[in-house]
Amino acid sequence: MKTSKLIFLLLAGVLFIASCKKDDDNTDPKKTITLKLSGLEDLGTDFVYEGWLIVNGNPVTTGTFMVDASGKLSQTTFELKATDVDDATTFVLSIEPKNDSDPMPSATKMMAGDFSGNAATVSTGLLGDFSGAAGKYILATPTNGADNDENSGIWFLDIATGSPAVGLMLPQLPDGWKYEGWVVIDGTPVTTGTFTNASATDDADPFSSTMPLPDVNGADGFFPGEDFLVNAPDGLSFPTDIAGGTAVISIEPSPDNSPMPFTLKPLVHNIPASAVDHMVYNMGQNLSFPTGTVSR
After folding, report:
1. Judging by DSSP bridges, how do beta strands 168-169 and 119-122 pair with one another?
2. What does each C-alpha distance from 122 to 20, 37, 272, 293 come to in angstroms?
3. Which of 122, 142, 207, 231 could form a disulfide with 111 if both were Cys (CB 3.0 to 4.6 A apart)?
């Protein structure tokens, strides 16, 4: 009888300790972080934004959110362990698959900023320094031969010296991002393809004709660009005249599920209505990138 009573008391003590520990876990001090971010865009149905605190060198998720067509965040406050909030040195914003089983941030990190006191100013600086970004392009259609529908193609290159040379001066992007060229034709953005190397042929030619591009860069081929000659998107007719349209270089998340240019467009130029082929045109900077603060 005494032995049974002793066992009962020991079990009761273990249960009491476990109960206290569970209560302690449920009453861990919490703190809230608040996001005030502008310039973000709707990622569609397949991707979400996710915030991260860097705590002792390790990422701690703050939670995911979406952005509507007007740029409004679906959630701006997140409750986390107070110790993580207090010890965080940096805030990072990434783009993640909506149904994501990976507990770590993706390579597609978009914004970041270090905490100074109770606030962090976040920006897209981790993508590179675009203060020196510059671009040149010509109108031409090399894939259907010379002097044929020359105003129906764009190539991001410079021929001021008489020979094709690099036309885009852009920083190397980190993993998770690619550049993409566009021409807005009659209000419709049409891609010229994505690329990471401005002195190489881009990765697509859905609208070009059958003639091969000139090989001026060895294994890298030609330069980014496209002839708009075949397979026109709905509402457009190719060949066309892109004079009066808009040339754009965007920075795109990779992978990317959107057929439209992403919000990051470092180079833009209104193609003159009187534009002629094989004349070099200069693009202008467009560095109104997303910014914001994170407070704790």
Report:
1. unpaired
2. 40, 8, 36, 6
3. 122
| The predicted structure's pLDDT at residue 101 | 87
Buried b / exposed e over 250-273, threshold 16 CB at 10 Å, is bbbbbebeeeebbbbbbbbbebee
**pTM of the prediction?**
0.89
Please give the pLDDT value at position 146: 84
Q: How far is CA 225 from CA 92, 109, 271, in A?
A: 33, 27, 15
- The distance from CA 53 to its chain's CA centroid, rounded to whole angstroms, is 20
Q: Which residue has the tokens 């993409």?
A: 180
Amino acid 7: pLDDT = 35
The residue assigned the tokens 């397949």 is 46
Task: List own/partner pairs for 192-196 with CB under 8 A and 24 or more apart.
Answer: 192/154, 192/156, 192/224, 192/225, 192/226, 193/224, 193/225, 193/226, 194/252, 194/254, 195/224, 196/172
Which residues lie below 8 Å from residue 294, measured CB to CB, with a gap of 6+?
33, 34, 35, 36, 51, 91, 113, 115, 119, 120, 122
191-194 own/partner pairs: CB under 8 Å, 24+ apart: 191/226, 191/259, 192/154, 192/156, 192/224, 192/225, 192/226, 193/224, 193/225, 193/226, 194/252, 194/254
